[in-house]
Automatic annotation (TrEMBL):
Its cofactor is Ca(2+). It comes from Zoarces viviparus. The modification 3-oxoalanine (Cys) is found at residue 70. InterPro entries: Alkaline_phosphatase_core_sf, GlcNAc_6-SO4ase, Sulfatase_CS, Sulfatase_N. Residues 1-20 form the signal peptide. GO terms for cellular component: lysosome. Its main location: other. It is found in: Lysosome. This is N-acetylglucosamine-6-sulfatase. CDD domains: G6S. Its EC number is 3.1.6.14.
């Protein structure tokens, strides 16, 4: 009896990918939505996804992005590194979004490269990085290493009238629902890939739908859904950010009717576009079941960053340090993950790469990542590991060198000034925060690189909506400790980013 039991134990401890089916490595699917919040009800419309992934596996109730903007966040997902290490600062080519330096540097050792070495069959479809496929970013001919099948959107999210790079060749699409709706096209191509795969090797799919990003183009059959839904009015909705950094002191408060109508309509259309993503998840799970791979496949569902609609009187966007923008949905099902788990351990988008590589059987000490595998959190029978008690969130503000012609009074340095000339970003909306989250403490400490060296501190235990900046009240010893921790994290690299002291 001892023999088989020892063997079983070895299999469990050494090789998560072999656990499910007697030696065959596990497949992995990563679905990355665009701008989907979790804090303001972003998952509510996705009933099938919650049932098929969340209820069938683990829901991480404390999942965060380390930077609340598409291109830097996606670069963190791909590399497992903080922005100060992958050096993608914003959504522009000059800020390294899909730039030549990104391509020759961090992208060349992104996690798909390692999966490919292990003979995973890899497939990508959807939005990649905001500047992908543009002139100056290698055009559609650039296929990042590690990918066997490549269907990437040129530029930022769109639902119709877009261009794809299909394995390096340009493919233009119009606006017929049946042949062009991007979310459905991603679904269809991934189903075909699964049909055509070779059963000898495991597969990895990364599906990156445009939803629920603007321009919120809804599939025809869903245009009448949620007609009575409005953005939630509780928490920090339309509260004046009077004790916050300067950008949060400028919005019109209370918000004008025009802003309210605009954000309610955006909120509703976001939910409607997500219904097509919900269909994607259902069809994928059905296909995996029919090809008998469901029990041997990990499915991750998450988003690049959160979103806000009216919080602190900011109409719509992301880019802020508050919970609504930095929290993201994260659900995972797969071998060794018990159903219906709600997990409290904080996990980050930089943890996706090491977790996926851990599942694949890659030796993590040979990979340069700042994040850590959370396989131990969701499948303790497969891995031992400890949760991190705190982490870094860092953001470099975007601006325009000239003033916005539609808001000439505002002057240069700002961006995203719509509607009603309320700006969502500026060069000096540049900040770094330590977020502490463990059994004892739920705190956030942030420093701005602006002319006021502004500091914001929140006690999320007593103030979950971050209504009161307690910087002037809190014990100075706590401020000092948080400041020291921030300095260390801002220059951390690899192991030192995981140092819990
Ligand atoms: C872009 O990345 C390169 C290294 O890949 C780095 O040297 C450069 O400073 C980065 N640019 C910015 C604006 O951070
Ligand atoms: C797609 O482009 C065509 C031609 O420019 C235009 O008429 C149509 O309105 C566009 N469709 C969408 C959904 O933007
Ligand atoms: C996706 O496949 C379905 C079912 O075959 C089809 O009805 C739909 O038109 C396809 N959509 C796209 C965008 O390819
Ligand atoms: C993993 O890699 C590290 C560093 O390259 C090496 O020291 C270690 O022996 C490897 N572990 C296994 C199990 O191969
Ligand atoms: C976890 O650690 C304990 C104690 O060291 C050990 O007995 C157990 O086998 C480990 N489990 C896994 C899955 O690594
Ligand atoms: C992006 O970052 C680069 C390098 O710091 C900067 O020159 C550029 O102005 C930034 N883009 C925006 C829109 O802020
Ligand atoms: C931030 O930048 C804007 C635009 O340049 C400027 O108006 C504002 O005074 C600056 N605020 C701080 C605190 O640096
Ligand atoms: C945060 O609030 C909780 C609950 O009111 C309190 O017990 C704790 O001491 C506070 N922490 C700090 C650092 O103020």
């Amino acid at each position: 009896m001892a023999g088989p039991r020892l063997l079983a134990l070895l299999l469990l401890t050494c090789c998560a990918r072999c656990a499910a089916s007697g030696g065959k490595p596990s497949n992995i699917i990563l679905i990355l939505a665009d701008d989907q919040d979790v804090y303001l009800g972003g998952m509510t419309p996705m009933k099938k996804t919650k049932a098929l992934i969340g209820d069938a596996g683990a829901t991480f109730v404390n999942a965060f992005t380390v930077t609340p903007l598409c291109c830097p966040s996606r670069s963190s997902v791909l590399t497992g590194r903080y922005p100060h290490n992958h050096e993608v600062r914003n959504n522009s080519l000059s800020g390294n979004c899909s730039s030549a330096l990104w391509q020759s540097g961090p992208e060349a050792s992104a996690f798909p490269v390692y999966l490919s070495k292990l003979k995973y069959q890899t497939f990508f479809a959807g939005k990649y990085l905001n500047q992908y496929g543009k002139k100056g970013a290698g055009d559609v001919g650039h296929i990042p290493p590690g990918w066997d099948q490549w269907n990437a959107l040129v530029g930022n999210s769109q639902y119709y009238n877009y261009t794809l790079s299909v394995n390096g060749k340009e493919q233009k699409h119009g606006d017929s629902y049946e042949s062009d709706y991007l979310t459905d096209l991603i679904t269809n191509r991934s189903l075909h890939f699964l049909e055509d795969r070779s059963p000898q090797h495991p597969f990895f799919l990364m599906l990156s739908p445009p939803a629920p990003h603007s321009p919120w183009t809804v599939a025809p059959q869903y245009q009448k859904e949620f007609s009575a839904v409005k953005a939630p009015r509780d928490g920090s909705f339309d509260k004046h950010g009077k004790d916050k950094h300067w950008l949060l002191r400028q919005p019109v408060n209370p918000m004008p009717e025009s802003s309210l109508n605009y954000l309610d309509s955006a909120y509703r259309k976001r939910w409607q576009t997500l219904l097509s993503v919900d269909d994607m998840v259902e069809l994928l799970v059905k296909k995996l079941d029919s090809i008998k791979e469901l029990d041997n496949t990990y499915i991750f569902y998450t988003s690049d960053n959160g979103y806000h609609t009216g919080q602190f009187s900011l109409p719509i966007d992301k880019r802020q340090l508050y919970e609504f923008d930095i929290r993201v949905p994260l659900m995972v099902r797969g071998p060794g993950i018990k159903p219906n788990q709600k997990l409290q351990a904080p996990v980050l988008n930089i943890d996706l790469a090491p977790t996926i590589l851990d599942i694949s059987g890659t030796n993590l000490s040979s990979v340069n990542v700042d994040g850590q595998s959370f396989l131990s959190q969701m499948a303790p029978s497969l891995r031992n590991g400890t949760a991190r008690p705190f982490f870094l969130v860092e953001y470099t503000g975007e601006g325009h060198p000239t003033s916005d012609p539609s808001c000439p009074k505002l002057g240069p340095g700002l961006s995203e000034c719509f509607p009603d000339c309320v700006c969502e970003d500026a060069y000096n909306n540049t900040y770094a925060c330590v977020r502490t989250l463990n059994g004892q403490n739920n705190l956030q400490y942030c420093e701005f690189a602006d002319s006021e060296s502004f500091v914001e501190v929140y006690n999320l235990t007593s103030d979950p909506h971050q209504l009161e900046n307690i910087v002037k009240k809190v014990d100075p010893a706590i401020l000092q400790a948080m400041n020291q921790r921030l300095i260390k994290l801002q220059s951390c690299q690899g192991v030192s980013c995981r140092d819990n002291k």
